TrEMBL record:
Any one GO biological process: transmembrane transport
UniProt-listed NCBIfam families: 3A0109s03R
Species in which this protein is naturally found: Rubrimonas cliftonensis
Protein name: Phosphonate transport system substrate-binding protein
Entries under InterPro entries matching the protein: PhnD
Annotated family: Belongs to the phosphate/phosphite/phosphonate binding protein family.
Residue stretches spanning the membrane: none
Amino acid sequence: MSRLLSAVAGVALLAAAPAMAEFRLDSRYADADGDMIADIPTDPAQLVDPDTLIFAYTPVEDPAVYAEAWADFLTHLEEVTGKTVQFFPVQSNAAQIEAMRAGRLHIAGFNTGSNPLAVACAGFRPFTMMAAADGSFGYEMEIITYPGSGVETVEDIKGKQLAFTSETSNSGFKAPSAILKADYDMEPGRDFEAVFSGKHDNSILGVANKDYAAASIANSVRKRMESREVISADQIRILYTSQTFPTTGYGVAHNLAPELQEKIKEAFSSFQWEGSSLEAEFSKSGEAQFIPISFQEDWAVIRKIDEANGVAYTCQ
C-alpha cells in the first residue's frame, strides 16, 4: 500500500464520525452502464447541439495566460466540430461546476479534486487528460515554505499559517488534509491556522513573497511558474512530496448530442501538439499529448481521499 493510501486509510480509522458518503450521481443523472459517469440522454428532447461551444480550463492560474495557451487547440476544435468555440475564464471551481450544471458550459478541464464533484453534480463526462510523450502522467502535491521561514519540517508548521487553495482542490486541500492528519496528527484550528488563497499560483506567490509560512500546492503549477520566471526556484523550499495523482480531466457535458461528443473527443485525440500554443505552455510541466482516461479507475484514489475527508456529494 502506498504512503498516501495508508494515510487515507488512517484518516478513515481516526475519524470518529458517521459513515462516510458514498460516491453517487445526482438524481437528475442516470448511470445504466455502471461506469460512474452520467449517461447520454436517450430522449432527443433532452439533447443539446449549440452553435457556440463554451470551453473552460480549471481556474488555477491567470486566465489571460491560459486563453492564449489554449488558442491553437480551440481553433482545431472549431475545425473538427464545425462550431464556434469560446474560451470562458472561470474564477473558482464552484463557479465552473455550477456553469456546467446550469447548461452554460459544454467542454471543460476540471482539476483533480473537483472532478468527482463535477461528475456527480454537473453531469461531467471526462475522457482525457494530458500526459508526457512516453505516456506517463500526473503531478505531485507539495507542501512548500520559503528559505529562512523557520519551517524545516512539516511538524514545524504547528502554530503557524498554512495556505490551502480551495476545499474542492485535491493537492490544494483534500490530500494534504488527509496526510497531515494521518501521518502527523495535525489538524487545522488545533495545530495550525488554515487560510484559503483561492488558486495555486496565489499560494505559491504567497510563499515566495513570505506572506504564508507554508502552502500545499500542485507541483505542475509551480514548475510552469518557474519556467515563466514568475518565481525562481530559490524562493521555495519543498517540505513534502506526495505520490503521483492524475491531473486535470477534460470532458463534456452529458447532454451534448452524441455525434457532437464524438467530434469533441476526436478533436482532443487528433490535436497536433508540436509547435502549438498548448505545447509552449504545458511542455513546461512535461505534457506533450492527450491520453484516454477512465473516471472509474483513474480517479479511485481521489474518491478515497474524499471518503476519508468526509466529502458528501450533495448538489445544490
